[in-house]
Write the structure tokens for this entry.
Amino acid sequence: APPSPQGEGFRLLWSKMRFIDSLKSTFRVRFLNNISVCGRISYADRTDRKEQVMENVFEYLRQLNTVSMMLRIVLAVVMGGLLGLERERKSSPAGFRTYMLVAIGSTVTMMLSQYLDVMLQTRWLAQAQALGVQHDVSRFGAQVINGVGFLGAGTIILTGRKRVKGLTTAAGLWASACLGLAIGAGFYECALASMAMIFVCMYALPATEQMIIARSRYMNILAELDRFEHFGGVANLLHEEGVRVHDVDINKEKDSHTAQLSVRLSVYLPKKYNHMELLAKLSTLAGVVSIEEVQ
């Protein structure tokens, strides 16, 4: 409450002071509100501008120009090389350079298809209409897949022990070709996401696969024996260990100087039975030249 003033002058001064305080408070509230609104608007504008810039950049890179062509070729080299490194470490028939060349070839083929489509609709339009030429953009990509099929078939081999090798390498070549097609088409989001998943499959999952196989109760055993009579000892040991045999495949070895026959066994192990422990026991039997677990 105001003090008891003496005289009319003090009362007028008190009224002016209250009026000035009310103006200050009103101005302060409005100023803070304006700052808050301006801040929200500027942040929204900056976000919209960033999104618009990204859209413009991707739109430019999806067009067929010198910058986008160089970027696509570099991406094909990097992604194909990274996939081929994993195969190169394992001494596969198709390694670092093969994967890289497949990715580059697929990318160039897709860009060539896009170039022909653009030219037939612009500079070559009159000649194309006069000759009745029609172009299907997807035709070149389909031929890439067919061509990679021959490469994949060349990496798959059947060993003398009836083991198939090279399936992962062939699948990797096919995936590398598809990756190159996506890069060549300018579908960068798909290419990057696919590259990440392929990278995980080739680098991270083998350890998980080995762990699952080691804990599996199903097991395939390949044993080489010097005589057929020694197969009885193998069968007896499996029976004593509680191992059930589901399938037996016996072949005579013609080129081996030490073993006369190879035996492939498909067995079902007791619960929590270690694979290496069983192989170690089988290797101590008489007549066993070599023994290993196969897929």
